[in-house]
Amino acid sequence: MGPDGARERLGVVLLSGGLDSTTVAAHAVREGVRVRALSIAYGQRHARELAAARAVAAALGIELIEADAGFYGRLAAHSALTSAAYAVPGGRPAEQMAAEVPITYVPLRNTFFVTVAAAALESWLLDRIEREGADPGALEGRIYVGANAIDYSGYPDCRPEFYRALEEVLRLGSKAGTVYGVAMRIEAPIITMSKAEIVRHGLALGAPLALTWSCYAGGERPCGTCDACRLRAAGFEAAGVPDPAAGSG
After folding, report:
1. Which of 111-150 are b and which e, b meaning 16 or more Cβ less than 10 Å from the residue's Cβ?
2. pLDDT digits (tens, 9 = 90+) for 206-238
3. 191, 23 contact by CB (below 8 A)
4. Does 204 score more than 60 pLDDT?
5. Distance (Å, rounded) from C-alpha 135 to C-alpha 113?
6. What CA–CA distances, in Å, run from 178 to 9, 122, 140, 226?
7. Secondary structure (DSSP) of 212-235
8. pTM across the whole model
9. Environment class of residue 225 by beta-carbon count within 10 Å: exposed (0-12), middle (13-18) or buried (19+)?
């Protein structure tokens, strides 16, 4: 335990460089967690987001782990985000976004992302225990995700019940959980927020939203019509504040 009896909290934040994950990264930092960010190159057509993740991590002063997982995009090819064979939908109304799973869904992407983050986090926890002699009872692991189940594109892997089930899988399948009793909790602090609430929360935290990128299209500038662009624009409009990254993402 720390001098005040609190557990040492180690956290890995899945950082895409977008509005949601950047807000969550700033949230984790504000909570006083020892934070490392993880950015995954999975063969996404909108690789521009990786540069945004680097800029965000630098602005927040947190270590960024960059994972090269290009093979995943080739396997999870039935998606407009990983294959040019499919067009990125544009101009969809909000009610349609929430009513169906669009072609921008990447098969089991969030399952893969959380698993990779858990591997990095468990390695960190085991290193603290087995190499540095930390008391397992004084440790806590957290995986921070920027999932949202309110203003979103209808993805099944953005729902609270998905993360609750995955958290139990990590407990049962990890050495940290089964041998040392150290849980790896999945934290999704914005999962029930509207996009406007996320914007306000990010601004209140001082998150570097001006550095973020949200567009699904693979261009140099945001398309303004894909789900991500439209949800972002609507969020800032509803929050009553200008987008600090206007013209960038």
Report:
1. ebbbebbbeebbebbbebbeeeebeeeebbbbbbbbbbbe
2. 999 999 999 998 778 899 999 999 999 999 999
3. no
4. yes
5. 28
6. 18, 12, 14, 43
7. -----S-SSS--S-SHHHHHHHHH
8. 0.94
9. middle
Closest to 75 measured CA to CA, from 105, 42, 51, 100: 42
The string over 54-86, giving b where at least 16 C-beta atoms fall within 10 Å of a residue's C-beta and e elsewhere, is bbbbebbebebeeeeeeebbeebeebbbbbeeb
Tokens of 89: 């939908």
Residue type, 218: G
61 Cβ contact partners less than 8 Å away, ≥ 6 residues apart: 29
Structure-token pair, residue 163: 């993360």
Paired sense of beta strands 63-68 and 34-41, if any: parallel
Give the amino acid at 56.
V
The secondary structure of residue 29, as a DSSP letter, is H
- How far apart, in Å, do the first and last CA atoms of the chain sit? 42
**By C-alpha distance, which of 216, 206, 84 is closest to 155?**
216
**pLDDT tens, 174-199?**
999 999 999 999 999 999 999 999 99
Residue with tokens 């969809």: 92
- Read off the tokens for 53: 């993740």
